[in-house]
Amino acid sequence: MVLVAYRHGLRVSELVDLRWDQVDFAAATLHVRRVKSGTPSTHPLRGDELRALRRLQREQSPSLFVFTSERGAPFSPAGFARLVERAGVAAKLGFPAHPPICCATLAALRWPIRGTTRALCKPTWGTRTFSTRCATRS
């Protein structure tokens, strides 16, 4: 979930509403429906994303939604926030209850990103959980 959200700049609400009919495995594309009067777009999927999504589709119970909870229900934005919080605690970063995630935090977690971040980002508490820009200069 975090990888897809980060690479495609998805808001949490866009991520949890992602459906399998938006994923085109043959063309390796993701059709993104934006919220807040955004323009729908088509994004290319990289090989590791395709493999992870195929595996997820095979292993989860049948659902219209790409990301479902352990009980088979679609994730909620609050559920995603709890998931990120647990990942931060597991990595011993100690995120607050509603974590501001940015590219520097992802770099600290050693997730695959493009580019290098040299400074920590100022926390942003806006509506976007994942941003592609740092608040500080790198």
Please, could you describe this protein's structure?
This protein is mainly alpha-helical. The chain has one domain: Orthogonal Bundle (hpI Integrase, Chain A). The chain contains five helices and three strands. It has helices at residues 2-8, 12-16, 47-59, 77-90, 103-108; strands spanning 23-24, 29-32, 41-44. The protein has a three-stranded antiparallel sheet with strand order 1-2-3, with no helix packed on it. The chain is globular and about 40 Å long. It starts with a helix and ends in a 30-residue tail after the last helix. Mean pLDDT is 75; it is low at 110-138.
In short:
The protein has about 140 residues and is mainly alpha-helical. It is built from five helices and three strands. It has a single domain, classed as Intergrase catalytic core (hpI Integrase, Chain A).
CATH architecture: Orthogonal Bundle
CATH topology name: hpI Integrase, Chain A
Shape descriptor: globular
Strand order of the largest sheet: 1-2-3
Order of helices and strands: HHEEEHHH
Quaternary state of this entry equals single chain
Tell me the total number of β-strands: 3
What value does the average pLDDT take?
Answer: 75
Q: Characterize the biggest β-sheet.
A: 3 strands, antiparallel
How would you classify the helix and strand content by structural class? mainly alpha
Number of domains: 1
For the termini, the CA-CA separation is 26 Å
